[in-house]
Structure formats: C-alpha cells, structure tokens
Amino acid sequence: MATILPSPPRVGMVSLGCPKNLVDSERILTKLRSDGYQMSPDYAGADVVLVNTCGFLDSAKEESLEAIGEAIAENGRVIVTGCMGKEAETIRARFPNVLAVTGAHQYEEVVGAVHDAAPMPPSAFLNLVPDSGLKLTPRHYSYLKISEGCNHRCSFCIIPSLRGDLVSRRPDAILREAEKLIAAGTRELLVISQDTSAYGVDIRHQPRPWHGAEVRAHMTDLSRELGKLGAWVRLHYVYPYPHVDQVIPLMAEGLVLPYLDIPFQHASRNVLKLMKRPANETKVLERIKNWRTIAPDIAIRSTFVVGFPGETEDDFAYLMDWLEEARLDRVGAFRFEPVEGAAANALPNHVPEEIKEERYARLMELTACISAEKLQAKVGRTLDVIIDAVGEDGATGRSKADAPEIDGEVHLRDAGHLSPGDIVAVSIEDADEHDLYGVPL
Ligand code: SF4
C-alpha cells in the first residue's frame, strides 16, 4: 500500500539587498529544502514568510521595513533575518507581530525559527536538495561567497559592525562548491565577499589539500584553481592591494575573466583619507596602465561616492580628471548618504544636497561618455557572449566585460535558437552608452 505523506509546510522568501545577501538566502532555502520544506512563490501559499533584510543604507533599511510590513499585511506570519536583525527593537516596535528576528549569517537560528513557526510533519524523509543547493539566480551563473566580514573600517560603512571582521572559507570547500555548481549547469562563477583581495589573511593563507596537491587560501591561488574548472570566473569587490597585480596574468592566460570590480570610491587624497581608505591614486593609474598592457581587454568597473563630507570643488575636479585619465569601463556613483552608526556622519563640512546632485550629474555625464566611446570601439569585433534570456527572435546576453545585474548587456538578433547559458561568438554591429548589439556567428 502506498504511503501518503503529509504535505510539508511552505516557506515564502523575500530577499533584499546585495548579492551577498542573496547567497545567504540561497543557503537558508537550501537548508530548509533539505529539512523537507517546500517553497512558495507567493504570500498566499506560504505557511510562513522569511524576509532577508539589508541594513546598509538608511534607504535600504526603510525598504526592508516596508517589505516586512507588506509581508505582514499579505500573510501575517513573518520571520525577519539579515543585516537588520541587529535592530530587533526597531522592528518589533513597528511590527509587534513578527514571529522572530535573527541576524545576518545566523543560519541555524533562522532555520530553527522556521521549524518553530511551521513544524515539519514527522515523515518528510526525502532528500529534496539538488546537488548545487537551491539557487535564486538563473542556473547558468552562480555567486560564490569566499569570505564574510571585513577588516577595514571605511568611515562611511557599517558592514564591519554588522558582519564582523574577515572570516575566510577554506579554499578546498570553496572549490568543492564551485565544482558542484558547474556540474549542475553553472557556466559563470561570480566570486563575492566584502573584500575579495583580503581572502585568507585571517587564516594566514593556510594551504589545504586539493586534488592531489595543495591550494593556499589566497586570492591568486584560488582564482587560478577556480579558472581550471572550466567556467567563466568573475572577481567582484576587489580592494586595490598591490597583490591584485598577480591575478592580471591569469586574465591574460584566459583562466579568469578580464574583469575587475574595484570600488575605488574616490581619487582625491583628502577624501580618501577622510574615508579611511588607502590614498595611492597616482600609483593606481600607473597600475591600471600596466594591467592593460598585460591584459588589453580588461574591463574595470568601479563605484564612487560624491559629496562626501569635506569634499571640496578641488577634490571633485581631481576625481573628474582622474576618471578622464583612468577611462574605466563601467562606473556607478552614489551621492553620500549618512548611514546610522557610520563614523563619517560626525565629520565636519557636509556637502549641501544641491551640490551633491550637481556633482553626481557631472560625473555620470563624463562616465557615460567614456563608456559610449569604449563600447563604440567594440563595433566590428567578435566577442564571446553568455546568453541570459531568449525571446522569439532575439536574445540578451553579456560579454566578458559585463557582470549580471550591474553592467550592460549584448542584444542579439536572429538568436531565437539559443538557450540561456550558451556561450557564443557574436559579431558586434552597434553600441550605445551602456549596451552592445550584434548577431551570433
Ligand atoms: S572595505 Fe567595503 S565592507 Fe569593508 S569597511 Fe570598507 S566599504 Fe565597508
């Protein structure tokens, strides 16, 4: 006689914030699936809803509180986790009905809270987890988190107080996870952390056995080994330490994508000092030139803060000149926003909002112009493109210079026969400020 299993509880998930938070959400869901829970794509079908919050900026906190409010209104049974878990009192004051509040990376606590809120019926005995874990990103690319926390103390940032000092994962564990992801269909690994170039500092770069040899817990060694697995490897959140130079030859060899995401934040010495970040911007310009000699196709993405307290017109003009010379491929900018608990709030000489706006507009105009010129130079070339989505006739994808979500896209015509995850050679026919247009060969 067939055994009729009671249907397991269903969990809804709202994941806010950065890719690092997305990875946490994936881990939580993977654990819940392995415990037998099912996922609900909507509020109505969920027995309990998890809201994984972001507390980086005040605007992100407000967005998190709104998401909690929406989940309570729509479902009523809500567990809050993530960065805002540190502010349990604020959350409980506004939403006394939340079932539990847990902090970032407290996987066991949040999973325990789900077990309390929606207990599993006794006979869910199947292993429901696919080998790659459960993913919220499309199957063909995956975020790979290599460490947690940060040893820096940038004055505008509260991440170290939310997430603590750097804690690196073992290199063999990261590589094993990467192998599983690739076996399950991942064709692009996006390496993330708060500070990728600091990887392994906390564990003194200790080597671990890996496939009959040893691999050090060091960005260079890890990148090389990841590169050997056969997927695209993209490095994010790289702090410009001198040893970053060592990964550029790996890009020239084709082991790692010629792409570096380095949040420079500013170029003026004065502002960098106030931000408590290293101030060696002229050396950085020389290094960028050198990187381009070794790996001519390298795409450099960065973010900058304008209107930081104490930023003078001269500081901003210096940043603009620096950007003209650096000719970065992709630039994101933020107007400085005081974040509760950040040291920068106490700095003198805050910049008036209208000046922040005006500087932001000037910076965006310059960087859009540089981006358009750089993309125009790609017209007529053949580039490898990874396909993200396919329509009836066309498709969208990304070149090696484009990370998902944050950079541009390549729009393809006559590409309805392709599938997400395909990597194809594309003849580039046109370009605008952010995107390329082409046809598969
Ligand atoms: S390096 Fe990044 S995470 Fe670390 S303190 Fe600075 S801004 Fe925050």
TrEMBL record:
It is an enzyme of class 2 (transferase). [4Fe-4S] cluster 1 binds at residues 18, 54, 83. One of its GO terms (biological process) is tRNA modification. The keyword Protein transport does not apply. It comes from the Bacteria. Residues 376-441 form the TRAM domain. Catalyzes the methylthiolation of an aspartic acid residue of ribosomal protein uS12. This is Ribosomal protein uS12 methylthiotransferase RimO. It comes from Sphingomonas panacis.
